[in-house]
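Task card 7
Instruction: Convert sequence to structure tokens.
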Amino acid sequence: QVQLAESGGGLVQPGGSLRLSCTASGFTVSTYSMRWYRQAPGKEREWGAAIGATGDVAPYPDSVKGRFTISRDNAKTTVYLQMHDLRPEDPAVYYCTRTPYWGQGTQVTVSS
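Output:
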């Protein structure tokens, strides 16, 4: 049974950092493309980062380029999203996906 569980969200000040984790079960993360999406209240879901089965990382969208980094630890079956320089426009629920599966999301809040 495929399951995805995000963790690592929380409250951070502007300019701060967080590392989100997505722990997968029921499959090996190294054999599938994995993505991070986010959705803020009242806004459409936005794609943030993707890593392919071969480890190749897709170009990041301009909204997070240079600040977010996706990676994975095959041994831990975990995909990470390292986020730096968090901004007021970054708060959202962040989701990990492996088509067609989604995790429950983890909330990121940026506030001073």
